[in-house]
Write a structure and sequence with these properties.
Blueprint: H1 7-77, E1 82-88, H2 96-100, H3 102-124, E2 132-139, H4 141-150, H5 158-168, E3 174-178, H6 186-198, E4 203-209, H7 216-221, H8 227-230, E5 233-237, H9 243-248, E6 253-256, H10 308-313, E7 337-340, H11 357-366, H12 370-375, H13 393-404, E8 456-459
Parallel strand pairs: 1-2, 1-4, 2-3, 4-5, 5-6
Antiparallel strand pairs: 7-8
Helix pairs in contact: 3-5, 4-5, 11-13
């Protein structure tokens, strides 16, 4: 039977076996390649794992080092915590009883202020543990002393200087700084020192006593966008907040120390008061804003007259609301009439848009006396504004614009041709009952959207 099988058949069977063997070899080779690939992958995975292990260990070590560093830094930050008080002493004035006691009054005022602040901090800032209390008062001491003497608060001006000496000698961190009558006034110094401490980690609260001066509104508006900064500031109210400060005070903590600070400006009943001034009849506690207007009609041959409107609107940081006689440095031209629109509303000719903004800001920063340069005389002997600058014609026009930015007390009804203050909002447009400042505008709503077409005048 075997002999019947041909060689061809054996060859075919051989080919089959050979094919199977080849397939087996290929399988073995594929398996070997796969094993090799897995070994390589394992090695890479092992290396990655070891690298990650080392990385995690390094991260943990670094994290521990950072946490330790943070702890050390926090310990440093928590050292010597303090709160700081800035008082504009030209308007935040201590009660008469303290000033009248001279040096002892200064010591008593400082000690009582320290006790009041400590109580406030304990009640409102419980997270701050026993902070030091720093107080800086900036004022023109001589001007304050003269004002208190002429108002009859103290029997002699030197008592105020004694008060300052007593205040400075009471506590190591309490300073009453005399800024003098130069250009570096109280508000400028407070603003710069305020900014210096605003981000100081050791300073946990800044108290700002400035309710009498709208100029501080700009400083506070810069912090309104940051809630954390708002929480670092407390306002101290002496006299009622001026209009611009009143509109933003709700964003901050506000406190009063009525036993320490006056709630009204210093005024005088001195017989040497400026002749014709409605302030001459004021009692020390009477509010000038309640008075009616006094006629200021003058002949063309007299020097520039001061109306009640211009006088009351002239109060500025550092003024003690004290009025005494002053000779004009030079005569100033007086308008003959007040121009009005068809509604009888006053219209002052001044194009604010034509004045370069940088020039406007430059003149504002110079702190020139509006009354002196625009009317020829300044009745306020304690005025801290500049009276010696050689003003040019163009600068006088810009100063007129600066003065118009302060609202006149009599608004659109003002009939004083000499009034240098604003009767309509300089930011408003004809027909529009609003402006850029919205509800925070210093001018009343009625002073917006005024028709500026002049149809009649009010002769004086």
């Amino acid at each position: 039977m075997m002999s019947s099988i041909s060689a061809q058949a054996f060859f075919e069977r051989y080919e089959q076996v050979k094919s199977i063997e080849q397939s087996k070899n290929e399988l073995i080779e594929d398996l070997l390649r796969r094993v090799s690939e897995l070994e390589e992958a394992y090695k890479r995975e092992k290396l990655d794992h070891e690298r990650e292990t080392r990385f995690n260990r390094d991260i943990q070590i670094h994290e521990m080092e950072l946490m330790d560093q943070i702890t050390r830094i926090k310990t440093i930050m928590d050292r010597e915590p303090f709160v700081i008080v800035f008082l504009d002493g030209d308007g935040m004035i201590f009660q008469d009883s303290f000033l009248q006691q001279g040096e002892q009054g200064g010591k008593d005022a400082a000690n009582q202020l320290w006790a009041s602040l400590r109580e406030y901090v304990t009640r409102n800032l419980p997270s701050v543990s026993s902070p030091k209390i720093i107080t800086r008062i900036y004022a023109n001491v001589k001007g304050l002393a003269d004002a208190c003497f002429k108002a009859g608060i103290v029997s002699k001006a030197s008592l105020v200087e004694d008060f300052v000496r007593g205040f400075n000698g009471s506590r190591l961190l309490f300073d009453f700084v005399d800024v003098g009558t130069g250009k570096d006034r109280a508000d400028d110094k407070i603003a710069e020192t305020f900014k210096l401490h605003l981000y100081n980690c050791h300073c946990h609260q800044i108290f700002l006593g400035c309710s009498h001066d709208n100029g501080y509104a700009r400083l506070l508006e810069e912090t309104l966008a940051d809630r954390e900064l708002i929480g670092r500031i407390s306002l101290i109210e002496g006299i009622p907040f001026e209009r611009e400060l009143e509109s933003i005070k709700s964003a901050y903590r506000v406190t009063k120390f009525p036993d320490l600070f006056r709630s009204s400006k210093i005024t005088t009943t001195s017989p040497t008061s400026w002749k014709g001034s409605p302030l001459a009849a004021l009692s020390p506690n009477q509010n000038p804003a309640t008075l009616t207007r006094t006629s200021t009609n003058t002949s063309s041959g007299t020097s520039a007259a001061q109306s009640w409107a211009s006088l009351t609107a002239s109060s500025s940081p550092g003024d003690f609301n004290l009025v005494t006689s002053s000779k004009p440095s030079s005569p100033a031209p007086q308008p003959k009439a007040v121009e009005r629109n068809k509604y009888g509303q006053r219209v002052d000719r001044l194009d604010f848009k034509s004045i370069p903004k940088d020039e406007l800001n430059r003149i504002k920063k110079m702190k020139l006396c509006n009354l002196y340069f625009l009317l020829g005389e300044c009745p306020n002997v304690n005025c801290y504004h500049d009276h010696s600058y050689k003003i040019t014609k163009n600068e006088r026009v810009i100063l007129q614009a600066v003065a118009r930015m302060t609202p006149c007390h009599f608004g659109l009804d003002c009939d004083d041709p000499n009034c240098i203050y604003g009767h309509r909002c300089p930011q408003s447009e004809v027909g529009k009952k609003d402006c850029f400042w919205g509800a925070n505008c210093r001018f009343d709503k009625s002073a917006h959207g005024i028709d500026t077409t002049i149809v009649k005048v009010t002769k004086v």
